[in-house]
Amino acid sequence: MVRRLEPYLKLSIVIPVYNEEENLQNLQKQLQESLAIVAADYEIIYIDDGSTDKSYDVLAKLAADDTRVKVIRFRRNYGQTAAMAAGIDFASGQIIVPLDADLQNDPKDIPLLVAKIEEGYDIVSGWRKNRQDDLTKTLPSKVANKLISLVTGVRLNDYGCSLKAYRSDLIKQVRLYGEMHRFIPALAVLEGAKIAEVPVAHHPRIAGKSKYGLSRTFKVFLDLITVKFLLGYLRKPMYFFGFVATFASLCSLAVIVLTIVDIGFSLGYIQLVIGLIFAVIFFFLAIMFVMMGLLAELLVRTYHESQGKKVYTIAKTINLVG
Ligand code: UDP
Ligand code: MG
After folding, report:
1. For ligand 1, what atom is nearest to the CA of residue 49?
2. Closest ligand 1 atom to Cα of 99
């Protein structure tokens, strides 16, 4: 039995939309049915992330029929995380629930997540226990989930599930970059957030296409390096740089020792030396790139946060002020 939300609490649903014209009407219908059960006051914020199909027209129609539907239209495609960030920035509810526009998440699960928030959790994360995607998605995701859990120390089964519920005051503090939305729980735990995970339904995509391929796994892996750096070393970067530098020096020392020892025995030592030199150069290049990546991450944050810049630009809004 689902309890209704206290009447003074407002629910904000946040939905990134990128070329989902065939899904939106059906989604809106299912949302209205599900939200009628749980909340007296709610808003549904759709963020059109630069769609090139008719998504915006469909959204404008939905907003004309119901003022609780709000629409933000981006100037171009900024990605799901930026869309989610915009929705969260504009949300006026005390509880914020993001979900996908493609009906892979089920609006029927919203009351479940919200009830858990009311029990006192700050973040309730959906767990697609029976995930309906093919192996090219589920396999990398399994590895990524294990890795994220290991590296961040926050134990969740499914970080990638968009369907989550957040206490608004907490999530509005978290700045989102890159594909970082899946790391919100890890970042929030650091601020003392209480997290729960509940199994949710997951359906195969019926209309429209998935926007992601294998390259996402790679981006997630890079974001994980950034998150680990931010979690542990944001206020003391020299420890991190110092550790990597020590490791690199030891490696180079080992290579020198090995080379000297080997010259004594083998004939093709010139090739060996050249090979080693190249190996060393590439090794240090790799390290330098990671380091520069981290510096860039810091610079990006300084750039956006010192000037209050957003990670997106808005073309227009409907039913929203500001
Ligand atoms: N999405 C978006 N901007 C993008 C890519 C995706 O707003 O650049 C939205 C998309 O419309 C959907 C959600 O993010 O609502 C999840 O995308 P998708 O279903 O393609 O991901 P998958 O379920 O295949 O992992
Ligand atoms: Mg999907």
Report:
1. 7
2. 15
By percentage, how much of the chain surpasses pLDDT 70?
96
- Are the C-beta atoms of residues 22 and 9 closer than 8 Å to each other? no
Q: By C-alpha distance, which of 141, 133, 144, 145 is closest to 104?
A: 133
Tell me the average pLDDT of the chain: 89
The CA-atom distances, in angstroms, between 197 and each of 121, 148, 157, 244 are: 10, 15, 8, 35
Number of residues in the chain: 322
CA 148 to centroid of ligand 2, rounded, Å = 21
Measured in Å, residue 202 CA sits from the centre of ligand 2 at 9
Query: How much is the pTM?
Result: 0.88
Residues with CB under 6 A from ligand 1: 16-18, 20, 49, 77, 79-80, 83, 100-102, 104, 210-212
From ligand 1's centre to the CA of 290, what distance in Å?
Answer: 28
DSSP state letters, 126-140: EEETT--S-HHHHHH
Distance between Cα 267 and ligand 2 center (Å): 59
Q: Which token pair is 20?
A: 């989902």
Per-residue model confidence as pLDDT tens digits over 10-65: 999 999 999 999 999 999 999 999 999 888 899 999 999 999 999 999 999 999 99
| CB distance 99 to 15 below 8 Å | yes
For atom 18 of ligand 1, the residue with the nearest CA is 210
Least confident of 80-89, 186-195, 273-282, 284-293: 273-282
Strand partners for 197: 125
Give bridge partners of residue 13 from the DSSP assignment: 44, 97
